[in-house]
Design goal:
- This protein is an alpha/beta fold.
- It has a single domain, classed as Vaccinia Virus protein VP39 (Rossmann fold).
- Helix content is 41%, strand content 15%.
- It has 11 helices and 7 strands.
- A 7-stranded mixed beta sheet has the order 3-2-1-4-5-7-6, sandwiched between helices.
- Helix 6 links the parallel strand 4 and strand 5.
- Helix 6 crosses helix 7.
- The longest helix is centred in the N-terminal third of the chain and has 13 residues.
Length: 266
């Protein structure tokens, strides 16, 4: 059984205080969930973040990881995304990122990689306990992030993807097609727009019914987003109705620990 640190609630609260004013798109319950994953995932290895922008999720992860001595956060981002920085040219979010982690007092607990993940993954050789994918949300981008680092995720580690319940095709397709439909994964779910699943190559088939139940609901969203068109009118209403049927609520710390330490059902 995963031991929940007695000070976890206090640590998450403090981490959120340091995170909340950092610019970014991670809402509070998503940020807190990332902190819980950093603290409770029952595996050894690095925490890898793909997509840092100005450091909102980096700060949350690093505050928790540094408190529990879990090693630095490897933060991979070219910091020149034309989507997040539409002005183009020499625009970069790296100075803001460095300012965020410096202000939070966790600069020494972050290992920045100013690069695209596809340029980092070929030479990556370290085990990963938590892979946080929040970079290119196109299907090609999210799939490349997943494929590039999956070989290094250790058993009982977790992969989480941001914006899986937003109108992007990448995160939801990778989650449904590569994770929920794979017997290499075990417990899975959503928190707000984060999709997550635990890598369980030894006993993943025992969780198949749970994954299939979630996949049936989540897969209904894919036809609405797979061609990256803007949803309007009735189609937008139908998308939101299907999304409302996907369970995506936060759990208590104890419930998360039970999920990550779940035993296959007989």
């Amino acid at each position: 059984m995963i031991a929940i640190p007695p000070d976890l609630e206090h640590v998450i609260d403090e981490a959120w205080e340091a995170t909340k004013d950092v610019p970014g798109y991670l809402v509070e319950n998503e940020a807190r969930f990332l902190g819980v994953l950093a603290a409770l995932v029952p595996a050894k290895g690095a925490i890898v973040e793909i997509g840092s922008f100005r450091g909102r999720s980096t700060v949350m992860l690093a505050k928790v990881a540094s408190h529990y001595g879990l090693g630095p956060i490897v933060a991979i981002d070219p910091h020149n995304s034309p989507i997040l920085l539409p002005s183009g040219g020499e625009a970069s979010s790296f100075d803001d990122f460095r300012s965020s982690i410096r202000s939070a007092g966790i600069e020494q607990h972050v290992e920045p990689r100013v690069a695209y993940s596809k340029d980092v993954s070929p030479s990556w050789n370290r085990p990963i306990r938590l892979l946080w994918i929040d970079g290119d949300h196109s299907y090609g981008g999210a799939k490349a992030d997943y494929d590039g680092f999956l070989p290094h995720v250790v058993p009982n580690g977790v992969i989480a993807l941001h914006d899986s319940l937003s109108t992007f095709d990448g995160p939801i397709r990778v989650f449904v097609e590569e994770m929920l439909r794979s017997d290499k994964f075990g417990p899975a779910g959503f928190v707000h727009s984060i999709a997550w699943s635990q890598f369980r190559p030894a006993d993943g088939p025992a969780f198949k019914s749970q994954r299939e139940k979630l996949a049936r609901r989540a897969a209904r969203l894919i036809p609405f987003v797979e061609d990256a068109r803007e949803l309007r009118g009735l189609e937008k209403i139908r998308y939101k109705l299907n999304r409302s049927r996907v369970p995506r609520f936060p759990l208590t710390y104890g419930a998360w620990a039970e999920q990550l330490d779940a035993r296959p059902r007989s």
